[in-house]
Amino acid sequence: MSHILLIIGGGIAAYKSLELIRQLSKAGHKVTPVMTESAGQFVTPLSVSALAGKKVHEALFDLTSEAEMGHIRLSRVADLVVVAPATADMMAKMAQGRASDLASTLLLATDTPVLIAPAMNVRMWDHPATRRNLATLKADGIAVVGPDEGEMACGEYGPGRMSEPAAILAAIEAALLPADRLLSGRHVLVTSGPTHEPIDPVRYIANRSSGAQGAAIATALLRLGARVTFVTGPASVPPPEGAEIVAVETAAEMLAAVEAALPADAAIFAAAVADWRVTQASGRKIKKQAGALPGLSLAENPDILARVAGMAVGRPDLVVGFAAETDDVVAHATAKRARKGCDWIVANDVSPGTGIMGGTENAVTLITEEGAENWPRMAKRAVAERLAGRVAEVLAAKNGTASGRRV
Question: Catalytic residue positions?
Answer without folding.
Answer: 154
